[in-house]
Please model this.
Amino acid sequence: MSEAVIRSVHSASTSPGLLASLDPLLREWLPRQRWFAGKGRPVTGFSLVSATEVLPLNSVGLGLLHLLVRAHQPLVPTQSAPAHPADCYQLLLGVRETLPPRLAPALIGHPAQGPLAGLTVYEALHDPRPADVLLEALRERAHIGELRFERDMAQEIRGDLVPRLVTAEQSNSSLVYGDTFILKLLRRIVPGINPDLELPLALAREGCARVPAPAGWMLADLPGDALGPGQGDPGDPYVLGVLQPFLQGASDGWDLALRELAKGEDFSGAARALGRATAEVHTALARALPEVTMGRAQMELLVEGMTERLTAAVQTVPSLLPYAPGLRSAFDALADLAGEGQTWTAQRIHGDLHLGQCLRSPSGSWSLIDFEGEPSKPLAERRLPQPTARDVAGMLRSFDYAAHSLRTEGTRVSAVPGWADACRAAYCSGYAEAGGRDPRTDPVLLRAYETDKAIYEVVYEARHRPDWLPVPMAAVRRLALPEPS
Model:
């Protein structure tokens, strides 16, 4: 490795030509990633928020660059998806003179100009050595440029854990270290306290064992408005990643439900236990963080948002139109109760709860994971206290989806009769056992949240998976019926 090449990469993170040299490569590579949020809109350019040389290119021909990059795209604001500034993405780029065959799938490209000209750039998370560097930085609580690595000193982090990239990812990326820890690297970065770190830390302080306690976390020390005016306050942290214990042998709740369905096995016992776990997490969050009371003014805003989403959904999916009056009645009923003086308690919740966010250990114990909330929502909105019924409604809808997900020779079959209803009832009963209150005792609130979720699902499926549209439409037909008096 020549000294000239080493000096070139060593200055890459501060070179004004770095992003220009990567621009044509990223325009092609970034939209293909599953975690890229701007699919369907062209990338018109990039701006560099932060560049840090985590691992200088060394004598064995390997370097690691950490970038925070804003991807500029045409904005298409709607009522349900308002226009946002350019999204900021976290990139970990490996740099080598040549790429070994085992890393061929990770190739991003070969810059033709700038400080990386003549070198190979690739997705570093596929490479064990850069992955080792991240874990070591967490172990040592390192500060590297604008990157800060913190940890819980009560948890041992060994340095000999072999990393592997989790391939089944959606909005983020994860590395598993020796079946002991999992490092979730957030891809879409915003300033502020990310609930995926905030809430597990709060639950750990409460001794809640239902959520793996963070062992370490990655932050970026940047100005609060580094993403542009109005995009953060001074002192706002930029959370980049969270290291948590890996629940070895645990089954994903969604996969587990589908396996039980395929075998014709009853799932109500597991659903009941999951209801208890959910209530325990909600109870611990209520102890750890402030609760608020939602009265008429707050509920009017809540109902207004639900109604606006319904109006926008009808415009996007015209087949909703015949059901719109019935669906709206679910929101009107909630507004009527608020107008009569009823109030509700709101607290911090999971925010995006479904079977895929739950893991069951071989012993049968459930854990809840991924507290990031809906990534498409602004961070401030995701951190608002909300009624726990929202989480419950999300899980009830998930049971319904599972019941419709069996396939025979590639074709989805009709829902297993009574399966979802039995799971829904068992889940609510388990919740009541651990939480002291059955969600079904507030049917108006629960119906409103279920209706709002089903409307969201209809729009999503119409845009992305049209063959799934009958699943939420079946729920729409049910929820649009008048409630029995």
About this structure: The longest strand covers residues 45-55. Residues 443-464 form the longest helix (22 residues).
